[in-house]
Structures are given as C-alpha cells and as structure tokens.
Amino acid sequence: MSHIYHITTAAEWEKAKPTGAYASASLALEGFNHCCTEAQVEGVLQRYFAGKPDLVKLTIDTEKLKSQLVYDWSPSVQDTFPHIYGPINVDSVVEVEKLS
To answer: How sure is the predictor about 100, in pLDDT bands with cuts at 50, 70 and 90?
Structure first.
C-alpha cells in the first residue's frame, strides 16, 4: 500500500464527500490534482498554503485510486510530484488530518 497526500480546505473536502469525488481547481485549470509525498508536505505547505486557515491533509491510498496517477517533474522546485489526472474518489482517502 502506497500513500500520497493532497492539501485542501476542510470546507472543500466536506463539499466533495457527498458527491463521491474530489476535484481541486487545478484539475479544471491544469488537468490534474496536485499531490505530494510525505517528505514534500512541509515544503508544499510553506510555498502554497502559508497563513491559510482551515487546512486538511488527505492521505490517499494509491491502490484505491480510480483516476490515473503520474509522477511529473516540476522544474520550479527540481523535484518529482505525484499528480492525479482526474477526480480523487472519496473512498481512496484513508485519513484526513486537520492542519490548521
């Protein structure tokens, strides 16, 4: 079992749960949901979510994902990040951790 992580607001997560699928704004804009590994979480929080309230970290079991998972190179931070090319099915989220 392999896990990846997605940061969002608690409100966005709660809104997605009844529909059975979560889609961040980046899915419509870029074609994928941004995710990260455990080692990348802190950097993602610092770069993109500093000072933002009501955050949660979704732990995603990659074996339960229905959408395609691809590890893409990010030249801006010189690292490879997991991206989900489609919605995140709610039943692939095995833990939700409140961050702020």
So the answer is: confident
In 10 A of CB 65, how many CB atoms?
Answer: 20
Please give the CATH number for the structural domain made up of 3-98. 3.20.170.20
pTM value is: 0.94
Enumerate the domain spans of the chain: 3-98
Q: What is the pLDDT of residues 27-38, one digit of tens each?
A: 999 999 999 999
